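fyi for ur records
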Amino acid sequence: MSVSSLDNNKKLSVIFRVEPGSLGPDGMDHVEAYCAMAQQELGSRLEHFVRWQFVPRYDKSKPEIEYGVGNKRITEAQAEKYLSLFKQDKEDFETDLVVGVSRLINVFFGRA
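which gave:
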């Protein structure tokens, strides 16, 4: 199967939970708007094999980054194996994601 024809239910689903506090002391007032902007700005990255979802992290018991395929969650090890199929190192993938999210905070608040 070619990469361009990967069905959405076979793509890696990545849920990134944004900490309201990362948006400053009044982050609760901005986190939902920021997540919508992140979805629009970052949602097309690696879209040939990744489906992104940026959501507020209201529940601290949930991980910052969660992976799945189809409607099922997968383990960190399974995510690492999936990413390797696309020549992606999981640690680098996550670092790039966090850096992109952080840079976008500056754009969101008009500081970039």
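The first strand starts at residue 12 and ends at 18. thats all i got for now
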